[in-house]
Amino acid sequence: MAGTILRPHFFMHNLLGSAASVATDGMLFMNLGAGRLSMIDSRDIGEMGPASSSTPTCSPGKVYTPSSPEAITMEQAAAELSRALCKQVNDFATPHR
Hints:
Blueprint: E1 5-6, E2 10-11, H1 19-25, E3 27-28, E4 39-40, H2 42-54, E5 63-64, H3 74-85, E6 90-91
């Protein structure tokens, strides 16, 4: 039985590992420096699974790496968290202003 492999890179949910430090210290501890990650929500992967098996362009045996349209830095992620939480959030690896 042939199958299609979905191999995501980084789940947005991984940021929840810093929830306590964001809440108490306003700090996002994901030491990535200036590196960029293309994050995806696991629910998006869940929706892709059935679609990949019923879409003619997704051939059995192929490997796909689903991701977001844009790779972002942790500094950008911290800025988005700041906006969403109405609280200053800093990335550990970024010099604080």
